[in-house]
Amino acid sequence: MIPVNRTRSQPRSGRSWSFTGTDYSEKRKSHILGKALAAFILIIFCIVTLKQCHSQSRPSPILSTSVFSFHEPGLTHVLVTGGAGYIGSHAALRLLKDSYRVTIVDNLSRGNIGAIRVLQEQFPEPGRLQFFFADLGDAKAVNQIFAENAFDAVMHFAAVAYVGESTLEPLRYYHNITANTLVVLEAMAAYGVKTLIYSSTCATYGEPETMPITEETPQLPINPYGKAKKMAEDIILDFSKNSDMAVMILRYFNVIGSDPEGRLGEAPRPELREHGRISGACFDAASGIIPGLKVKGTDYQTADGTCIRDYIDVTDLVDAHVKALDKARPNKIGIYNVGTGKGRSVKQFVEACKKATGFNIKVEYLDRRPGDYAEVYSDPSKINNELNWTARYTDLEESLRVAWRWQRAHQNGYESSKFMSPLFRLLPRF
């Protein structure tokens, strides 16, 4: 855990003003008091003007009695952006389980308020968890969140994250990923938050000539999603050169699975199913939501003609994030691939999904999807050696079986969930 020794400074007490009488005549008294009153009003006007000028040059903390507003020795307060999403919610669950204090910010465009409800029910104690409904593209809202809270670290997950969608809406991806990361960094700089764990992707590598991918593999992304993530990485690295930040960048591969205890899962919006993960499509086909599975691309230079990917269980992924947080140190930058080191083809994945669900899923083979690449899998030796992290949930069929149990128990996702209002904060848009 990161040592915490900072305390929020208390506001200075206001200066008192006193006026004493004299033995002069009442007319003289009135004259003096009039001048004093005018001087007092002028002083107040100057103070207000100076404060306004100061607030425009540097944000000032908003005084609050909330426990989230103060640093506590031995307790690490983590801001989890995108914490209502699939990966972010699992990370928040792990942090809470490990006794971190957690604040989640999410605009719910891809996340689920039901996931927040589950976390609140699991950890109802005061001072453990709070949620802000806000958009990271709203700089004033983001600054308000930082002003009201004493964060020790940020885990930045919030992002749109579909390769196919990024080729159709590139500007949305550059804004949501790259520009919003800049807003988060500016707020961290303004309020002295020194530790960042950044959720990046193997898509920044593009389609390397050799496998497996190491951290030294050239980053040559071939779709807007990967390009936007690489731009965000570059911004983070450039900023960290002139600061004492602790930065950990985790480039992870294809995420599958869900919480082994069945508390959380993946519940993408119906309109996004076309762009979603292959596991979601497999489950939809097994559930009869869609007539069958569409596999895009059978002419890649691989053994069976379909894409090869490195599938990492979400439980292992969040474990890597927590280990990165624990190992983060000032003036240090860590960049790590998070994967199993083993690639499986789409056809292999489909067969594992059939066994996990018990359904003979119908498969339709189509042309390639724009922006996809043939083969991607990791060399995780660096994170193994430096963070003592190793993927443990590597049985593809078992990971899919765990996720399928959650899907069967939540056929409408988090649709029927209701948030618990005491921990829900709705920030107005400015």
UniProtKB/TrEMBL annotation:
<feature type="transmembrane region" description="Helical">
    <location>
        <begin position="32"/>
        <end position="50"/>
    </location>
</feature>
<dbReference type="GO" id="GO:0003978">
    <property type="term" value="F:UDP-glucose 4-epimerase activity"/>
</dbReference>
<dbReference type="InterPro" id="IPR036291">
    <property type="entry name" value="NAD(P)-bd_dom_sf"/>
</dbReference>
<keyword id="KW-0520">NAD</keyword>
<keyword id="KW-0119">Carbohydrate metabolism</keyword>
<dbReference type="GO" id="GO:0006012">
    <property type="term" value="P:galactose metabolic process"/>
</dbReference>
<keyword id="KW-1133">Transmembrane helix</keyword>
<dbReference type="InterPro" id="IPR005886">
    <property type="entry name" value="UDP_G4E"/>
</dbReference>
<protein>
    <recommendedName>
        <fullName>NAD(P)-binding domain-containing protein</fullName>
    </recommendedName>
</protein>
<keyword id="KW-0812">Transmembrane</keyword>
<comment type="similarity">
    <text>Belongs to the NAD(P)-dependent epimerase/dehydratase family.</text>
</comment>
<feature type="region of interest" description="Disordered">
    <location>
        <begin position="1"/>
        <end position="20"/>
    </location>
</feature>
<dbReference type="InterPro" id="IPR016040">
    <property type="entry name" value="NAD(P)-bd_dom"/>
</dbReference>
<dbReference type="Pfam" id="PF16363">
    <property type="entry name" value="GDP_Man_Dehyd"/>
</dbReference>
<keyword id="KW-0472">Membrane</keyword>
<keyword id="KW-0413">Isomerase</keyword>
<feature type="domain" description="NAD(P)-binding">
    <location>
        <begin position="79"/>
        <end position="394"/>
    </location>
</feature>
